Amino acid sequence: MTAVQGAPLFSVLQSGDGVPADATYVPADPAQVLWGRLPRRGDVPVATVEPGATVVVDTISHEGLLDDQGSDPVAYFGGHGVARDQVLADAVEVVARRTREPGAGPHVVTGPIAVDGARPGDLLAIRVDNLALRAPYGVISTRHGRGMLAGTPYDGSYGQFCTVTEDGRFGTMPIAPGSPHLARFPLAPFLGIMGVATDTAERVHSVPPGRHGGNIDVKLLTAGATLFLPVQVPDALFYVGDPHFAQGDGEVALTALEAPLRATLHLDVIPAEQVADVGIGPFAAGHGLVIPTGLDPDLNVALSTCVGNAVDLLGALFETDPRSAYLYLSAATDFTISQAVDLTRGVHGKIRVSDFAHTSGSALARYVLGRAG
After folding, report:
1. Would the N or C end of the chain have less CB density within 10 A of its end CB?
2. Is residue 349 part of a domain?
3. Can you tell me the mean pLDDT for 148-157?
4. How many Å apart are CA 142 and CA 221, to the nearest integer?
5. With helix as H, strand as E and coil as C, how does the chain read?
6. Residue 290 sits in the same domain as residue 356
7. Number of other residues whose CB lies within 10 A of the CB of residue 1
8. What Pfam families does UniProt report for this protein, alphabetically (predicted)?
9. Is 369:289 a contact under the CB 8 Å cutoff?
10. Domains in the chain, number
11. Does one domain contain both 207 and 115?
12. How far is Cα 365 from Cα 173, in angstroms, rounded to an integer?
């Protein structure tokens, strides 16, 4: 393809390209995705795996597919200098064969994948082993009055096509329309959506996250991290979507650098009897950290929830007294806005495992701390 902004670009990773022959592979073809809604109880899985399995899952970004972008990714990306053969064929097929219902979210979600034997009360552990860039470009956008500067002169519906450097390490964008000068920022790919099916009769909207996980947008969920989700329905019915190449905490304009990824994920189950009565909701471990979350439409409540979940996690993993844990968190743990634009606000904490010499020794603690790295 022609280099945009003068930078050489690598080729796209089309569906099936480079997938090991023995892999459990779930492509993002139209029969295996939902658009704007999440899996619910009773949905038929697109694949079934045993606990401990590794799966390879393709995701596609909604940018370039939406109505306000013309619902034609070939034309949309072609307008930015992308050759026809460098547009993902599965993105083109989803637009051609699927219709996003009015009022649904923007996200294309791949799945669900059944994890045989998972039951409500268990935790599904999703370890992110690898995230491969499927395209050398992506889009950042704001729209619908949903960014943090809604109602100001910066409000509106607009976006920026961004390119990726040949080594896949940085994204670039012009500092002003038509400017030859670029801003360059590091990439840290992660999946904005990883979730389990909700125990509901209807499929819920893809935008707000919740106890099921979903659109939690925690940028620490890069390769090497593990996300823990409370199973809601039999066999968990796991799914992924909303791939990002990079995101700032807060995701303040509305979107991150939205761009497609191929995810290699290890799925495991922690049985309910090991979880005990710890009401900790979604949390993660990796990069030397344990990462509690808090979710609520009110940012203050989301922060309070995250702090309470952190106190519970400290007790479960390190046998801390709740009051001592509360004081420790105030002195030693950062609490960060994950995102403030997804109807339900998100906060996450960063607890350093290295701060604790003593652990509880429980099966849950051994597993979680083993994933923290």
Report:
1. C
2. yes
3. 94
4. 23
5. CCCCCCCCCCCCCCCCCCCCCCCEEECCCHHHEEECECCECCCCCCEEECCCEEEEEECCCCCCCCHHHCCCHHHHHHCCCCCHHHCCHHHHHHHHHCCCCCCCCCCEEEEEEEECCCCECEEEEEEEEEEEECCCEEEEEECCCCCCCCCCCCCCCEEEEEEECCCCCEEEEECCCCCCCEEEEECCCEEEEEEECECCCCCCECCCCECCEEECCCCCCCCCCEEEEECCCCCCCEEEEEEEEECCCECCCCCCEECCEEEEEEEEEECHHHHCCCCCCCEEEECCEEEEEEEECCHHHHHHHHHHHHHHHHHHHHCCCHHHHHHHHHHHCEEEEEECCCCCEEEEEEEEHHHCCCCCCCHHHHHHHHHHC
6. yes
7. 18
8. FmdA_AmdA
9. no
10. 2
11. yes
12. 43
Query: How many alpha carbons fall within 13 Å on the CB side of residue 105?
Result: 24
Domain end point (choices 229, 250, 270): 270
196, 124 Cβ separation under 8 angstroms: yes
Length of the chain: 373
Query: Mean pLDDT score of the chain, rounded to an integer?
Result: 95
Instruction: Give the contacts of 245 (CB within 8 A, at least 6 positions apart).
Output: 133, 138, 164, 171, 187, 188, 189, 256, 257, 258, 259, 261
Output the six-digit token pair for 270: 């922690």
| 58 and 118 co-located in one domain | yes
Q: Which domain holds residue 214?
A: 24-270
- Residues 241, 303, single domain; the answer is no
The span from the CA of 242 to the CA of 194, in Å, is 9
Question: pLDDT tens, 25-70?
Answer: 999 999 999 999 999 999 999 999 999 999 999 999 999 999 999 9
What tens digit of pLDDT does each residue of 109-150 get?
999 999 999 999 999 999 999 999 999 999 999 998 899 999
